[in-house]
Amino acid sequence: MYYVTVIEDFLVKIIHTSATTIDNIFIDIACLEGYFVIPFSNDLSDHGAQILMIKISFQIQSDRLKIVRKVDKYTIMDFIYKLSNESWDSIFHGNYVNIMSFLNIDLQIFYSSFPLIRTKRRNNKNNWVTLGIKTSC
User: Fold this and answer.
1) Among 14, 19, 51, 128, which has the minimal tally of Cβ within 10 Å of its Cβ?
2) Are 69 and 116 in contact (CB under 8 A)?
C-alpha cells in the first residue's frame, strides 16, 4: 500500500485572533529514510513557511540497465480508461473532498497503468562534444 502522509507540524499563519496551518505537504514515507520539518519565519508578513528536509536512499543501478515506467499511447489510453471508470464516491464527503482517498486511488491507477520496465541504457557519448561546448551549454 502507499504510505502517503501529510506534514503539518506547526502553525504557519498567525494573526491576533487565530492561528492556522494552511500549507499542506504530502509525502510518501515508504521511500524515505527519514524526514523533518522546520519552521521558517520571514518576519515580513503574518505567514510563515515550512521547510521539509528529506533523506533519500539511492540504489546504484547497473551501467547497462535502468528502470523506467512504460509510457506509450496504449498505457496512456489505459490510464484514461481506468480514471473514467473509477467510482469517485469515496472522495466526496458532504462539502469537502477527501484528498488522501483521491491520492491513493490516483496512485493505484497510475502504477497499474504505467508499469516499471527494465531497459538498456543508451550510449550517448558524443566524442565531438568538447569540454568547451559542455561548459557553454
Assistant:
1) 128
2) yes
